[in-house]
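Researcher: I'd like a candidate sequence for this fold, 226 residues long. If you have to choose between options at a position, lean toward the conservative one.
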């Protein structure tokens, strides 16, 4: 029996991580986990419950309270917080503005990483996990590690279409640059490309082309691992 296939897909916002990861999971018959949604979910809970998201100590104290359940079906990856479907609310601008600060708190990251590793361990045939520190911190022994990139302009155009509410591309690009700096500069599990990750620039590729490339890379890694 083959070992479960673990695919780590990292990269900043707007590179096509979610669309690519879900499509790769469907193509390969694997489970799927959006770790960014988990951080958004706990951020949404903090905001909804009056926790000061500018106070790391307050965030740390509250980090163990919400019950977050992530669906792993790539065709319908719902996420709930305390039994409430939070799939829509976590995409608000308010959450987007606060998620980097909440994600930087070590207690939050420790709890989320525990969730993420448990999900990977429970996936019988394997899983595609997307995020910012999957290949470096969460699943360093993944079968294949992919790091997606794209130009700032392309990323902003993509991202502005995903977020709730009317947001200009210029404003989205400014927010992305700030988040990149925050995520790359945090002390705990920063956004980084793993030394053995393969970089794929999605700027000029269609989604199908990116998925084909990633599926091929996973196949190559599986073959060399045998």
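Model: Candidate sequence:
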């Amino acid at each position: 029996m083959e070992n479960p296939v673990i695919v780590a897909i990292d990269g900043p916002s707007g590179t096509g991580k979610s669309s690519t990861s879900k499509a790769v999971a469907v193509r390969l018959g694997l489970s799927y986990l959006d770790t960014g949604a988990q951080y958004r979910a706990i951020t949404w809970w903090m905001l909804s419950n009056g926790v000061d998201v500018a106070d790391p100590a307050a965030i740390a104290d509250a980090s163990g309270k919400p019950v977050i359940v992530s669906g792993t079906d790539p065709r319908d990856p719902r996420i709930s917080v305390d039994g409430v479907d939070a799939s829509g609310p976590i995409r608000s601008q308010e959450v987007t503005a606060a998620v980097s600060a909440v994600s930087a708190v070590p207690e939050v990251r420790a709890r989320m990483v525990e969730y993420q590793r448990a999900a990977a361990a429970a996936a019988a045939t394997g899983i595609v996990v997307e995020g910012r520190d999957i290949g470096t911190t969460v699943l360093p022994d993944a079968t294949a590690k992919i790091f997606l990139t794209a130009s700032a302009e392309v990323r902003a155009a993509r991202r502005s279409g995903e977020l709730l509410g009317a947001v200009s591309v210029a404003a989205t690009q400014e927010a992305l640059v700030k988040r990149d700096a925050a995520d790359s500069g945090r002390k705990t599990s920063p956004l980084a490309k793993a030394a053995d990750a393969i970089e794929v620039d999605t700027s000029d590729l269609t989604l199908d082309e990116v998925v084909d490339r990633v599926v091929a890379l996973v196949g190559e890694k599986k073959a060399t691992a045998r």
